[in-house]
Every structure is written in C-alpha cells, then in structure tokens.
Design goal:
CATH class of the domain at 222-373: Alpha Beta
CATH architecture of the domain at 222-373: 3-Layer(aba) Sandwich
Bound molecules: octanoyl-coenzyme A
Shape: globular
Number of strands: 13
Number of helices: 11
Length: about 375
C-alpha cells in the first residue's frame, strides 16, 4: 500500500498580541471596578470580592507569557472583557474561513500544490461560528476546489482526529489529497472575567496537507506510520453554549457556563496518565521504542503537563530540542497547538527520524499520530 504523508503545514498568526503584563493590568482594573460596584454586598458578606490576578502565577502555573488574538482592544477594556469582532454579512467571507485561507495558502505552498489539486477539506477545531453551512464548504468554494468538505469538532483533539480521518480517507480511496484546517478563535469562548482561566487561551489557525507519497512534491514529507484516538467522557472541561439555550428560562442571560469552564487540577491529574499510557501503548503496538523518538510535538496546554508526559513516555527528562513548546508565545490554542509545534520544529529532522504529534483535551479526548521523516 502507498505511503501517506503530511506534505505541507502552515500557521496563520493574528497580528495582535497580549502580554501577561497587559492582561493582568486589565483584569485587575476589571476586578477593582466590580468590587467598587458591589462594595455594599461585599461588606455585608453577600458577595465575595474578585481577587487580583498575577503575572508570576500565570507563568509559573502554565508557562504562558503571551497570546495572539483576533481583537485586543475589547479583551483589554475592563468594561468589555471580550473581543469585538464586526458582524459580517452572509455574502462576506466569514472570519474563520478568512483565517483558514491564510493558513491553507502557506501549507499548499510548502506542499508545492495549487488549491485545485486538493479534493477534500476538513475544518477541525473547538468551536464554529455558526452551525451551517459548514465553514469547510465556504473555504472549498473560496479555493475553487472540486470534491467535498466537512467540519468536525473534538475540542483540543480536533486536528489529530482529523489526521486519522484524512489518513483513512486517502487509504480507502475516497479522497486523494486532504487539507485539514484548524481556525481557533479561543478568545471568543474563554471567560476573560474569570481569574482562574483568563490567561489560558489564544487565537491562531493551522493547516496541513495529506496525500500519497507517490504524488507528493514537497521537500518536507512525513509518513504517517499510524494513528490512534481515544475518548473518555468527563465534565471537567465543559461549555454549555448551544442551540437549546434559547429554550431555557433565562437561558440567553450572561451566565458563566456559556463560556469555557474547567476543573484545571482534575484535568491535569487525569489527563497526564491517560495520554502517557496512550502514547506508550501506541508505540508498543508499532514496535517502536520510546528511545527512538526524535521529537514529541505535544498539545500546548500547560508546560508542566508536557514536561510530565515527556518524562513518563521517555523514561527520562526530555532533551531541550526533543519536546519543543510554543506555549510561552501562543498560549493554549486548542487543537492548533501541536500542529504549530510540528510546523515550526520539524525541518531540522533527518530522513528516518520518528516523532509523534499528540493532542488532548475536552471530552476527554486524545489523538496520537506517529510520523517518520521521509
Ligand atoms: N492569578 C493569581 N492566582 C491565581 C490565578 C491568577 N490568574 N488563578 C488562580 N489563582 C490561584 C487559585 O485561586 C489558587 O489559590 P488557592 O491555592 O488559595 O486556592 C492557586 O492560585 C492555585 O490555583 P489552581 O489550583 O487552579 O492552579 P494550578 O496550579 O492547578 O494551575 C492551571 C491552573 C494552569 C489551569 C492548571 O491546572 C492546568 O493547566 N491544568 C490543565 C488544564 C488543561 O489542560 N485543560 C485543557 C483545556 S483546553 C481544551 O480541552 C479545549 C477546550 C476547548 C477550547 C476552549 C477555548 C476557550
């Protein structure tokens, strides 16, 4: 059977960025305004004051220093605390399609392909700006692609699950070349007013091209050796936004569960062993020793989490270049995180080198992809 390869990758990075310092300053202004507004209730014990956030905590707990966003002014305005994105008419390109086109262009260039060479698009990410028509079909039209496109959502694991789907589609013959795109606008579904999570997320879009090796022209190719996906239900990362909200009493009021919610400690404790076990099992099924891994392109949620997974998988401290992190610059970009690392830290590998792309998150879900440089 022909080898299937990743022949191109691309990252679109928004032009606006927020440092921890700027983020904490605006959060603390918001906290002061709220505490002033509810001074009486706080004094009578009816309400808890909002505590200040801290740059030191954020970096120590997560490894994050910066995040890119599609709109900075709204997020940093203590009277707004969310991005401000202009509503577009139905005839205009949607914002997720626009981000997708930018990332796709870079991936196609790397793969030395024209858009017409692609016959399937999967837009795979944590949240979609509308229910239908699919963002992927809009991207398909904008790129002038014949064939079919669909959206899929497995939260942080969307891109690796899409790699498994695309790999299977090419193997079965239902598609020849697949573009996987992950336009993540996490800034619109994180709760910037919640100190526990306001620092976690950023925006980005990644793209990958998958095709058979015998048709691939790229100078950078990674064979997909094997994929393995896992899910196990958990409420520890949850968002209750959805089309039924209008049917609930006061369902459309500003409520905490409309945005990202998590029990971070539990996620950390439960997901680290689940992911380490998945990777080790997957390697063993493919008769690959962890000693032979040149690179781990891990999901970018938390630096200590990645350090721990790396130690469990490799049986020792990962070497500096063995497990790159982009968290400090991009923060958690959900499904795009492991793909950014793959895109930015893979061209130094040599033919025969083996690595894994691994993502994990809400669901719980985890996707592992073993690749080998051609
Ligand atoms: N500044 C200062 N202090 C703070 C802050 C802050 N900003 N936030 C919390 N604290 C305080 C807490 O109140 C607590 O105080 P005390 O000890 O007095 O109670 C103390 O600091 C410690 O708090 P935590 O226990 O919460 O801190 P942790 O060390 O556990 O770190 C983390 C928190 C960083 C959240 C960590 O638990 C973590 O990273 N866990 C893993 C989370 C994870 O990977 N989640 C994956 C989610 S992503 C995903 O699946 C995709 C979902 C869809 C995308 C959504 C896009 C928006």
């Amino acid at each position: 059977m022909a080898k299937i390869v990743i022949s191109g990758s691309g990252v679109f990075t928004p032009s606006e960025a927020i440092s921890n310092k700027e983020l904490v300053k605006s959060f603390n202004q918001y906290a002061d305004l709220q505490n002033e507004k509810y001074a009486k209730e706080i004094a009578s014990g009816e309400r808890e004051p909002i505590t200040h956030s801290s740059e030191e905590f954020i970096f120590k707990a997560s490894g994050i220093k910066n995040r890119y966003v599609m709109n900075k002014s709204g997020v940093l305005d203590p009277k707004i605390m969310h991005p401000i994105l202009e509503k577009r008419s139905d005839d205009e390109l949607s914002i997720q399609a626009e981000m997708s086109l930018k990332a796709a262009k870079i991936a196609l260039e790397q793969a030395k392909l024209q858009s017409a060479d692609i016959d399937s698009i999967i837009v795979a990410c944590s949240n979609f700006e509308r229910a239908y028509p699919a963002i992927s079909i809009e991207v398909q039209q904008a790129l002038g692609i014949n064939g079919f496109a669909f959206d899929m959502n497995v939260a942080c694991s969307s891109a690796t699950f899409a790699i498994q789907v695309a790999n299977d589609m090419i193997k079965s013959g239902s598609a020849r070349r697949v573009l996987i795109i992950s336009p993540e606008i996490c800034s619109a579904h994180v709760e910037w007013r919640d100190r526990d999570c306001h620092f976690i997320f950023g925006d980005v879009c990644t793209a990958l091209v998958l095709e058979e090796e015998n048709s691939a022209k790229s100078s950078e190719q990674f064979e997909i050796i094997s994929t393995k996906c896992l899910t196990s239900f958990s409420n520890n990362i949850r968002n209750n936004s959805g089309f039924l909200r209008r049917t609930y009493r006061n369902g459309m009021d500003d409520q905490r569960d409309m945005q990202f919610m998590q029990n971070g400690r539990k996620v950390f404790k439960e997901v680290v062993p689940m992911v380490a076990k998945l990777i080790l099992q997957h390697l063993s099924e493919n008769n690959i020793s962890a000693n032979n891994l040149s690179r781990l392109w891990l999901h970018q949620a938390n630096k200590s989490m990645n350090d721990m997974i790396g130690r469990k998988v490799l049986g020792q401290e990962p070497k500096a270049d063995q497990q790159p992190n982009i968290l400090q610059e991009y923060a958690n970009t959900s499904s795009a995180g492991s793909i950014i690392t793959f895109s930015q830290y893979s061209d130094d590998l040599i033919s025969g080198d083996i690595g894994i792309i691994c993502s994990f998150g809400a669901g719980y879900s985890a996707g592992n992809v073993i690749v080998q440089k051609i």
